[in-house]
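User
Please review the sequence:
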Amino acid sequence: MEKIFLNYHTFIFGSFINCNDGSFILLPELNYNAADNLEVILGSVVPCGKKGSEFNGTWEVNGEKIEVLKPSIYVQAKLSF
């Protein structure tokens, strides 16, 4: 889903959903067109799910728990030329 507002901002929202266990990942993103060739992006990755689900953020491998996906926020600058 994408929504453009104020001519310079774009809000994008995406998600991954596992219908078998009800877990999901939210992927909101806010883009700002600072100039004709410069875009600044603020986004987030939010995994949601109960223990043992696909998107709860941890996997068990050989009896050890590994954190593969943590909630995170990122900033990205994209220069086009």
Notes: Residues 11 and 56 are 25 Å apart (CA to CA). The chain has a mean pLDDT of 87.
